């Protein structure tokens, strides 16, 4: 970042230079424990201007409140994902129950006919209907799995990957010891 001899950002001095009074006010407000956004609002300057002045003065902001808010948002998002996962599994169960109704001859099938919309009770699931239900079930399960993976333990996947690579390497070594893959004609 290019600065002037007095330490100010040189680009700002041409567009709307910060006065010494504004600089002092920003430093004073920082000393009172105000956050960057609040200081910017109070002095009528951009947040970036406040950040630059504080950096030039080696002042930092307490980010405890931001960290707490971020953790709260993460916790809320995790709870929302869990609720969505529960709903997806409940939907899958309803669709599976619907497919199971055919086994007892109670599958309700609605179709458009020349007489209008008619509903019939069948002892089987028509092919297109089963395909549509199976596709919906698959989709719900895939989405639930993706959401579960977000909150899963990333170390588990890394360990699986490492163990898979280790197993592959051991298999290659075992094959080399048995002479597999040796094109020399000797065995």
Can you tell me about this structure?
- This protein is mainly α and 187 residues long.
- The chain folds into two domains: 10-62, Arc Repressor Mutant, subunit A (Orthogonal Bundle), CATH 1.10.10; 71-153.
- 65% of the residues lie in helices and 7% in strands.
- It has seven helices and two strands; from the N terminus they run H-H-H-H-H-E-E-H-H.
- It has helices spanning 10-15, 20-31, 36-43, 47-56, 64-100, 127-150, 154-177; strands at residues 107-113, 116-122.
- It has a two-stranded antiparallel ribbon with strand order 1-2.
- A hairpin with a 2-residue loop joins strand 1 and strand 2 (116-122).
- Helix 2 (20-31) runs antiparallel to helix 3 (36-43).
- It is flat, with a radius of gyration of 33 Å.
- The mean pLDDT is 82.
Write the layout of secondary structure elements.
Layout: H1 10-15, H2 20-31, H3 36-43, H4 47-56, H5 64-100, E1 107-113, E2 116-122, H6 127-150, H7 154-177
Features:
187 residues; mainly alpha; Arc Repressor Mutant, subunit A; 2 domains; 7 helices; 7% strand
Pattern of helices and strands: HHHHHEEHH
> What is the number of E strands?
2
Low-confidence stretches: none
Count of separate structural domains: 2
**What's the alpha carbon Rg, rounded to whole Å?**
33 Å
Shape: flat
Number of helices: 7
Average the pLDDT over all residues and give the rounded result: 82
Strand arrangement in the largest pleated sheet? 1-2
- Major sheet size, sense and barrel closure: 2 strands, antiparallel
Helix content: 55-70%
> What is the terminal separation in angstroms?
68 Å
Helix-and-strand structural type: mainly alpha
Estimate what percentage of residues fall within beta strands: 5-15%
């Amino acid at each position: 970042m290019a600065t002037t001899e007095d330490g100010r950002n040189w680009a700002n001095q041409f567009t709307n230079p910060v006065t010494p009074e504004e600089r002092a006010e920003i430093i004073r407000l920082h000393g009172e424990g105000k956050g960057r956004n609040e200081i910017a609002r109070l002095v009528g300057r951009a947040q970036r201007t406040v950040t630059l002045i504080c950096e030039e003065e080696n002042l930092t902001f307490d980010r405890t409140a931001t960290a707490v808010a971020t953790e709260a948002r993460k916790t809320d998002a995790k709870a929302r994902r869990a609720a969505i996962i529960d709903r997806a599994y409940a939907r899958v169960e309803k669709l599976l129950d619907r497919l199971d109704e055919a086994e007892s001859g109670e599958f309700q099938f609605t179709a458009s006919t020349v007489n209008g919309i008619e509903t019939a009770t069948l002892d089987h699931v028509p092919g297109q209907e089963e395909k549509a239900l199976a596709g919906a079930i698959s989709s719900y399960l895939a989405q639930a799995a993706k959401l579960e993976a977000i909150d899963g333990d990333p170390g588990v996947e890394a360990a699986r990957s490492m163990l898979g690579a280790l197993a592959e390497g051991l298999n290659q070594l075992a094959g080399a010891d048995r002479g597999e893959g040796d094109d020399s004609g000797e065995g």
